[in-house]
Amino acid sequence: MERTAVPRWLLETVRKAKRPENVTVYKDTSNEVTAHRLNTVCEEARCPNRGDCFSRGSATFMILGDVCTRNCRFCAVKNGHPLPVDREEPLRIKRAAQKMGLRHVVVTSVTRDDLADGGAEHFASVIRELRTLPGAPTVEVLVPDFKGYHEALNLVLESKPEVFAHNVEMVPRLYREVRPGAVYERSLDVLAAAQKESRPGTVTKSGFMLGLGETEAEVLALLEDLRDAGVALLTIGQYLAPSWRHYPVARYVTPEEFADWEKEAYKMGFLGVASGPLVRSSYQAGYYYRKVTGRVQAMASD
User: Is residue 154 part of a domain?
Assistant: First the structure.
């Protein structure tokens, strides 16, 4: 596929997002992550919003190491043979969250198909540790598919995260070529099972990218599938190829188109939608969680 030139407006948007707005807070955030020997998806996945988020004193923790057992063609995280699980990591995340004063903690991971439970118990351990903090923060987990094992899924849900997220990433037609280790139907099943088995009040969340060659009809069908699975919170962002070795960008979607998809998603019944070129799974996660819970409470009182 021929490489598509990045439009100037997007290059400037990325430059601005990468640039620290508050250098002092940015350095403090980076230092806390380093001091507690933690990984962040902000750094490992080369997120363009790192400057903005670190400047706000927030980061998305990535547990279970920095090596993924899958090799998706869109992802910057390295793949290979991971190290053994670090049992002290949940405690270090708790201490970092406390030092950073986080009120909404977002935790994701590499995919660990080498582990019997896919790392589910480790997710649960992180949630349990965060629950011991004074005035415990709300917790959002962005999990892999655990190969579809509901027992692993339930390990995470039993720890009662406020937000349970799993990304479908893209329309199903592209899975075989771009993320061959994943199964679209399996991801939908994870989301549907989470919505069904989670405690009342848990918000189910998913996200996907545009710009990989999908059609409008495919995006509409994807949105319908996610609503049928019970997803309440949705993120839609632009795919940005991490390097020339990764899957090429087919098209750069305009901000106006992202705004149209946001309107369409709200019309379809999603309670919270973040849609824009640099939107990522954890984009302003705490804000959108509060927005959704406010709408749920308002609906319940009607």
Answer: yes
